[in-house]
Amino acid sequence: MTEIHQLDSILADQISAGEVVERPASVVKELVENSIDAGSSQIDIVVEDAGLKSIQVIDNGRGIPVDEIEMAFRRHATSKIASRQDLFQIVTLGFRGEALPSIVSVSDVVMETATEGKPGTKVHLKGGKIIDKQISESRRGTKVRVDNLFFNTPARLKYLSSIQTELSAITDIVNRLALSHTDIAFSLLSNGRELLHTAGNGNLKQVISAIYGINVARQMVFFEQENNDFKVQGYISLPKLTRASRNYMSFLLNGRYVKNNHLSKALVQGYGSKLMVGRYPIAVISLRSDPILVDVNVHPTKQEVKISKEQELCDLLSQSVYQRIAQENLIPDALKNM
Ligand code: ADP
Ligand code: MG
């Protein structure tokens, strides 16, 4: 032990990286969320060996101005919030300014970025340090390539699961980002194989079809309801189409994919006694509220959120699902799909 001293910033970033980048899928999530926040209409994700060899995220968003590049890699540096007030009105997916510094502290990164009509910049970072910076000819947008993830954190590397498990975590997160942003065209390529492709035309049913298959999409029904505080809408499966896992229920709160047991329970409750024990619906549900009702600053990955008036939201969800299912039962089979 030594006397108390301030850790240098790269070491501090490596420590906090543990919370933000647990596995390759977390890198994909953070980079794609940055691309979404940059107003992109197309985002292409390319991974090799489930991201352990490399991860690339290519967008056509607004890019980073040349004089701000170095700042983007510093901890708690963000363009998304400025004041305490903004913290209660978060409308972007990021705001903590932690992702880029965390990722670069545990990998090799090359970023090429350009703003509209300006020459681009290409920077190369190794273990958190900029080792090269050049002007590059780029079109508007940003391309980030991450190699050798966790090269300097051997324990983290050892803890990772098989390539197959890591790849399914990546697919899972990209699917949910595509479901929550139907106006963005996504593609996911893994070792040359296309795992997802969406059109970006705003059609949620088409995205559901791209992810779960056309037969599933055909058997899902739309519902929509609102009260003074919340609007809930989306597609749910009828009770005859179920899965043995809760993983097919997605909740998108103000455009952010969230994990919330109370919402899952409320959805299942809406089916009443129509689901068998251990069976769950397939559902993609968008929830909208004034951002002031949602605290996203609970956990670094921002998938857990605190919702004010959560019970009211759960009741609205259960009731609207219940009514939609009941309504379906009133339509004689012969008239369905006419
Ligand atoms: P946060 O997203 O919380 O602001 P990050 O560390 O993820 O923090 O990113 C830092 C900053 O870098 C962002 O606020 C944004 O200004 C910029 N940035 C990162 N990725 C992109 C991108 N793909 N396109 C444009 N700007 C980006
Ligand atoms: Mg971010």
TrEMBL record:
Cellular component per GO, a single term: mismatch repair complex
Similarity field: Belongs to the DNA mismatch repair MutL/HexB family.
Gene Ontology MF term list: ATP binding; ATP hydrolysis activity; ATP-dependent DNA damage sensor activity; mismatched DNA binding
Identification of the protein by name: DNA mismatch repair protein MutL
Task of the protein: This protein is involved in the repair of mismatches in DNA. It is required for dam-dependent methyl-directed DNA mismatch repair. May act as a 'molecular matchmaker', a protein that promotes the formation of a stable complex between two or more DNA-binding proteins in an ATP-dependent manner without itself being part of a final effector complex.
Name of the gene encoding the protein in the UniProt record: mutL
Keyword Manganese on entry: no
Domain DNA mismatch repair protein S5: 208-326
Keywords: DNA damage, DNA repair
Domain of life: Bacteria
Portion of the parent chain present: 1 to 338 of 665
GO annotation (BP), single: mismatch repair
Record field: transmembrane: none
